[in-house]
Amino acid sequence: MINEDLILETIDMIRLYNLDIRTVTLSLSLRDCIDRDVNVVCDKIYKKITKYAKNLVEYANEFENDYSIPIVNKRIAVTPISLIGEACENPDYVKIAKTLDQAAKDVGVNFIGGFSALVEKGFTKGDELLIESIPEALRQTERVCSSVNVATSKSGINMDAVLKMAETVKKAAELTKEQDGIGAAKLVVFCNSPGDNPFMAGAFCGIGEPECALNVGVSGPGVVRAAIENLDKNADLSTLANKIKKIAYKITTTGELVGRKLAKKLDIPFGVVDLSLAPTPTLGDSVAGIFQAMGLEDAGAHGTTAALAMLNDAVKKGGIMASSHVGGLSGAFIPVSEDAGMIEAAAKGHLTFDKLEAMTSVCSVGLDMIAIPGDTPSDTIAGIIADEMAIGMINKKTTAVRVIPVAGKNVGDKVFYGGLLGEAPIISINNLSSTGFVKRGGRIPAPIHSLNN
Question: Is residue 56 predicted with pLDDT exceeding 60?
């Protein structure tokens, strides 16, 4: 029987509380595009992307209209490009990046991810060449996103890669300083990166993934906030957690419905639904707003980490009950520039860099979209990355760093990106030197619990 209350609830979720399909991401293997000639590689890549993704945007727009559910982004994730380009006799990773960008533009997607390398235990020649090319590749492209995995719970932390990526982040920001360092905003450094993640900038098609699949990312922090605010103000935390689970269940079901139907129309397999509470700069669509609804004065108050831990766990529990194909990151994101409440809390000094780092021990990703002073040394950025990788490695979870050292700006200034990337105040960081530690190089060994075979 048709339940009128459920129909009205879903309509309210969409119209009033910003429920949306944040992204549909076509995951595509490019391993059959390998060739000795980089020009042949680029030709194969362009043809394959435009073949498989030619109808992605059109069909997604049709489903958006049919179901009246916003599908905010249409994206593509490809095989880590370091693997595709290293067989070339004349490797030119910037040329490959420009090919990816052109293909993405021609099929109409917002972003294409996979300009990536996996170097948790060391570098191949292709890995090194790709990493060296990242700043220039991001300067010359609009839609390309890049990620590098430098640590896993099984392998430990490749500190040589950490230092190299710190230098890469710094250079990517400097080369795009006219746009407030947006190159660094499209670059993320990972520990335990998943190969089925539909969210940028870290999406790529993992080597264990199928030839092609459609992964869906659903988001609804505004829906969760509204549900909490509608509870009795004296409801205990167990009741609150249970309410979040029920809402997460409904959000996940909506995402999988749209994802499966769109995958069927595209005639490709459905992959995973990633239920991540990814905020936007829109008022009311904020993870920080959820903390306030829970009873905290603002994000950053003592208790914020505990509130985030409960939120993240309840979201995962609700999602896993709704679908057998939950994947990606799934949980709650805390990107400073992309969350209106986080932006305000950081600007007021309520949310500090150290508090954000503490929160990453329980959130879905890590230090995300944080603008820092442009004169921050690369060794300090390496220390920031190393700390975050350690949190992921020890806790067997995905963590990441996406910091933006904005050239010419300091604490008290702001950066403006627009769209989903939003805006952010420059946050103060610890000025103590990390040089002697990070320049030792080598690997930080994996923890003892990695030996679980």
Answer: yes
Q: Which residues contact 217 (CB under 8 A, 6 or more apart)?
A: 21, 22, 23, 24, 25, 198, 199, 255, 273, 274, 276, 278, 328
**CA end-to-end span of the chain:** 50
Split into its structural domains, the chain has a count of 1
Beta bridge partners of 163: none
Mean pLDDT to the nearest integer, 95-106:
98
Using CA atoms, how far apart are residues 219 and 104, in angstroms rounded to an integer? 23
Query: Which sign does the torsion angle of CA 387, 357, 182, 428 carry?
Result: negative
DSSP E strand stretches across 362-413: 367-373, 399-406
- Contact present, 115 and 137 (Cβ < 8 Å): yes
Q: SS3 of 213, please? A: strand
CB atoms within 10 A of CB 6: 10
Q: What domain range includes position 424? A: 1-453
Identity at 351, one-letter amino acid code: L
Give the closest residue to 25 by CA, choosing from 336, 278, 314.
278
Cβ 24 vs Cβ 266: under 8 Å: no
Give the integer Cα–Cα distance in Å for 331 and 311.
8
In the 8-state DSSP scheme, what is residue 177? G
Q: Give the H or E element holding residue 16.
A: none
Residue 106: helix, strand or coil by DSSP?
helix
Q: How far is CA 292 from the centre of its chain?
A: 24
Q: Is 221 helix (H, G, I), strand (E, B) or coil?
A: helix
- Please give the model's pTM, rounded to 2 decimal places: 0.92
CA gap 447, 450 in Å, rounded: 6
Q: How far apart are CA 38 and CA 335, in angstroms?
A: 36
- Of all residues in the chain, the percent with pLDDT exceeding 70 is 96
- For residue 277, the domain's CATH number is 3.20.70.20
- 340-358 pLDDT, tens digit per residue, is 898 999 989 999 999 999 9
Tokens (6 digits) for 443: 């690997």
Could you tell me whether strands 144-152 and 187-191 are parallel, antiparallel, or unpaired per DSSP bridges? parallel
pLDDT digits (tens, 9 = 90+) for 122-171: 999 999 999 999 999 999 999 999 999 999 999 999 999 999 999 999 99
- Strand, coil or helix: 146: strand
Cα separation, 134 vs 40, whole angstroms: 21
- Residue 146 has φ and ψ, to the nearest 5°, of -130, 145
Structure tokens at 148: 């590098």
| Angstrom distance (rounded) from CA 18 to CA 216 | 17
Q: Per-residue confidence at 275, pLDDT binned at 50, 70, 90?
A: confident
Contact of 360 with 127, CB cutoff 8 Å: no
Cβ(348)–Cβ(298) under 8 Å?
Answer: yes
What is the pLDDT of the chain when averaged over all its residues? 91
Structure token digits, residue 184: 């660094």
Checking if the pLDDT of 389 tops 90, the result is yes
What values do phi and psi take at 201, rounded to 5? -95, 10
